[in-house]
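Annex B. Sample input.
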Amino acid sequence: MLGKTYLTKQASLLLEFAKTTSDSELSAKLVSKAADLKSQADPLPDRDQGLRAPDVTAPDVTLGIGPDRQTGS
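Annex B, continued. Sample output.
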C-alpha cells in the first residue's frame, strides 16, 4: 500500500502541472486525478510505515550488537 506522504506529494505535483498547462481538458483531468489521490490519502495515518514489518526489530548499532558480532567478553 502506498503511504499518505507519497500520495499527497503526487497529488500536489499533479496540481502544479495542472496550473502550468494551457490545455483546459488536460488540466481538468490532472485536477481530478489529484482529488482521487487525496481521497485515498485522507484515511491513512499521518506517518508512513517503514519497510520493516512491525514485529521486526533492528540490531542495536549504538552498542555494536548485531548479527555479525558477539556480545560479552
